[in-house]
Amino acid sequence: MAFLGDTFNAADMPESQTYEPIPAGWYSSSITEVDLKDTKAGTGQYLRVRYDVTGPSHEGRAVFANLNIRNPNPKAEEIGRQQLGQLMRAIGVASLTDTDQLIGGNCQIKVAIRPADGQYDASNEVKGWKALSGSPAPAATPAPAQAAPAPAASGSTAPWLRK
Prior knowledge:
Layout: E1 25-38, E2 45-55, E3 62-70, H1 74-91, E4 106-114, E5 123-130
Antiparallel strand pairs: 1-2, 1-4, 2-3, 4-5
Protein backbone atom coordinates (compact mmCIF):
# COMPACT_ATOMS: atom_id res chain seq x y z
CA MET A 1 0.00 0.00 0.00
CA ALA A 2 1.22 3.54 -0.83
CA PHE A 3 0.03 6.71 0.88
CA LEU A 4 -0.81 9.33 -1.78
CA GLY A 5 -0.32 12.38 0.42
CA ASP A 6 -3.50 13.96 -0.94
CA THR A 7 -7.20 13.20 -1.32
CA PHE A 8 -8.50 12.70 -4.86
CA ASN A 9 -12.24 13.12 -5.47
CA ALA A 10 -13.72 11.76 -8.70
CA ALA A 11 -16.07 14.78 -8.91
CA ASP A 12 -13.02 17.09 -9.01
CA MET A 13 -11.16 15.17 -11.71
CA PRO A 14 -11.28 16.37 -15.33
CA GLU A 15 -13.44 14.42 -17.75
CA SER A 16 -11.57 12.23 -20.18
CA GLN A 17 -11.32 13.38 -23.77
CA THR A 18 -13.51 11.70 -26.34
CA TYR A 19 -11.85 9.74 -29.10
CA GLU A 20 -14.75 9.93 -31.53
CA PRO A 21 -13.61 11.08 -34.98
CA ILE A 22 -13.97 14.78 -35.71
CA PRO A 23 -16.36 15.64 -38.55
CA ALA A 24 -15.04 15.50 -42.11
CA GLY A 25 -13.81 18.81 -43.52
CA TRP A 26 -10.88 21.20 -43.77
CA TYR A 27 -9.04 22.13 -40.54
CA SER A 28 -6.09 24.37 -39.76
CA SER A 29 -3.37 22.35 -38.08
CA SER A 30 0.16 22.34 -36.76
CA ILE A 31 2.52 19.38 -37.13
CA THR A 32 3.76 18.42 -33.67
CA GLU A 33 5.33 14.98 -34.18
CA VAL A 34 6.86 13.07 -37.08
CA ASP A 35 8.33 9.61 -36.66
CA LEU A 36 9.98 7.34 -39.22
CA LYS A 37 8.55 3.84 -38.73
CA ASP A 38 9.12 0.46 -40.31
CA THR A 39 6.11 -1.22 -41.87
CA LYS A 40 4.63 -4.17 -40.01
CA ALA A 41 6.17 -6.54 -42.57
CA GLY A 42 9.53 -4.81 -42.17
CA THR A 43 9.85 -4.30 -45.93
CA GLY A 44 9.21 -0.56 -46.07
CA GLN A 45 9.06 2.67 -44.11
CA TYR A 46 6.50 5.38 -43.51
CA LEU A 47 6.25 8.73 -41.77
CA ARG A 48 3.73 8.86 -38.92
CA VAL A 49 2.63 12.50 -38.72
CA ARG A 50 0.64 14.04 -35.87
CA TYR A 51 -1.42 17.13 -36.67
CA ASP A 52 -2.87 19.18 -33.81
CA VAL A 53 -6.03 20.92 -34.97
CA THR A 54 -5.92 24.70 -34.44
CA GLY A 55 -9.30 25.63 -35.92
CA PRO A 56 -11.88 26.58 -36.96
CA SER A 57 -13.31 24.05 -34.50
CA HIS A 58 -12.09 21.02 -32.55
CA GLU A 59 -8.97 22.88 -31.41
CA GLY A 60 -6.55 20.64 -29.55
CA ARG A 61 -7.69 17.39 -31.15
CA ALA A 62 -5.01 15.28 -32.81
CA VAL A 63 -5.27 13.65 -36.22
CA PHE A 64 -2.67 11.20 -37.49
CA ALA A 65 -1.54 10.26 -41.00
CA ASN A 66 0.90 7.68 -42.32
CA LEU A 67 2.84 8.51 -45.48
CA ASN A 68 4.61 5.64 -47.26
CA ILE A 69 8.06 6.71 -48.38
CA ARG A 70 9.55 3.26 -49.07
CA ASN A 71 7.40 0.29 -50.00
CA PRO A 72 7.87 -2.84 -52.11
CA ASN A 73 4.53 -2.00 -53.77
CA PRO A 74 5.45 0.75 -56.26
CA LYS A 75 1.88 2.17 -56.31
CA ALA A 76 1.76 2.47 -52.49
CA GLU A 77 5.13 4.23 -52.53
CA GLU A 78 4.04 6.55 -55.35
CA ILE A 79 0.86 7.55 -53.50
CA GLY A 80 2.78 8.13 -50.26
CA ARG A 81 5.35 10.29 -52.00
CA GLN A 82 2.61 12.31 -53.73
CA GLN A 83 1.03 12.90 -50.32
CA LEU A 84 4.39 13.90 -48.82
CA GLY A 85 4.89 16.33 -51.72
CA GLN A 86 1.47 17.91 -51.05
CA LEU A 87 2.34 18.28 -47.38
CA MET A 88 5.77 19.78 -48.10
CA ARG A 89 4.32 22.32 -50.54
CA ALA A 90 1.54 23.21 -48.06
CA ILE A 91 4.01 24.07 -45.29
CA GLY A 92 6.67 25.64 -47.52
CA VAL A 93 9.39 22.97 -47.33
CA ALA A 94 11.14 22.67 -50.71
CA SER A 95 13.59 19.90 -49.77
CA LEU A 96 13.41 17.36 -46.96
CA THR A 97 16.27 15.40 -45.37
CA ASP A 98 15.12 15.15 -41.72
CA THR A 99 11.69 14.60 -40.17
CA ASP A 100 12.33 17.54 -37.82
CA GLN A 101 11.99 19.87 -40.83
CA LEU A 102 8.24 19.13 -40.83
CA ILE A 103 7.65 19.78 -37.13
CA GLY A 104 6.05 23.14 -36.49
CA GLY A 105 4.70 23.33 -40.04
CA ASN A 106 1.21 24.80 -40.30
CA CYS A 107 -1.28 23.88 -43.02
CA GLN A 108 -4.86 22.97 -43.69
CA ILE A 109 -5.67 19.28 -43.69
CA LYS A 110 -8.68 17.66 -45.31
CA VAL A 111 -10.02 15.21 -42.76
CA ALA A 112 -12.21 12.27 -43.75
CA ILE A 113 -13.81 9.57 -41.63
CA ARG A 114 -12.75 5.98 -42.18
CA PRO A 115 -15.77 3.84 -41.28
CA ALA A 116 -15.51 1.18 -38.61
CA ASP A 117 -14.79 -2.34 -39.75
CA GLY A 118 -14.95 -5.54 -37.75
CA GLN A 119 -11.56 -4.95 -36.14
CA TYR A 120 -11.31 -1.14 -35.72
CA ASP A 121 -13.61 1.71 -34.65
CA ALA A 122 -14.31 4.59 -37.02
CA SER A 123 -11.33 6.96 -37.25
CA ASN A 124 -10.08 10.06 -39.00
CA GLU A 125 -7.69 10.05 -41.91
CA VAL A 126 -6.01 12.91 -43.73
CA LYS A 127 -6.92 13.08 -47.43
CA GLY A 128 -5.47 16.43 -48.51
CA TRP A 129 -3.15 19.29 -47.63
CA LYS A 130 -3.06 22.95 -48.59
CA ALA A 131 -1.28 26.06 -47.39
CA LEU A 132 -2.95 28.29 -44.86
CA SER A 133 -4.02 31.56 -46.45
CA GLY A 134 -1.20 34.03 -46.04
CA SER A 135 1.45 31.31 -45.70
CA PRO A 136 4.68 31.76 -47.62
CA ALA A 137 5.17 29.82 -50.82
CA PRO A 138 7.76 27.05 -50.70
CA ALA A 139 11.32 28.22 -51.01
CA ALA A 140 12.78 27.74 -54.44
CA THR A 141 14.80 24.61 -54.91
CA PRO A 142 18.48 25.59 -55.08
CA ALA A 143 19.86 25.57 -58.60
CA PRO A 144 22.51 22.97 -59.30
CA ALA A 145 26.06 24.25 -59.06
CA GLN A 146 27.45 25.63 -62.29
CA ALA A 147 30.21 23.61 -63.87
CA ALA A 148 33.61 25.26 -63.81
CA PRO A 149 34.53 26.88 -67.12
CA ALA A 150 36.64 24.79 -69.41
CA PRO A 151 40.36 25.40 -69.09
CA ALA A 152 41.80 27.88 -71.55
CA ALA A 153 43.43 26.49 -74.64
CA SER A 154 47.11 25.77 -74.17
CA GLY A 155 49.31 28.76 -74.83
CA SER A 156 46.69 31.30 -73.76
CA THR A 157 46.46 32.87 -70.33
CA ALA A 158 43.23 33.60 -68.52
CA PRO A 159 42.38 37.34 -68.64
CA TRP A 160 42.63 37.78 -64.87
CA LEU A 161 46.18 36.35 -64.85
CA ARG A 162 47.49 38.70 -67.55
CA LYS A 163 49.49 41.80 -66.52
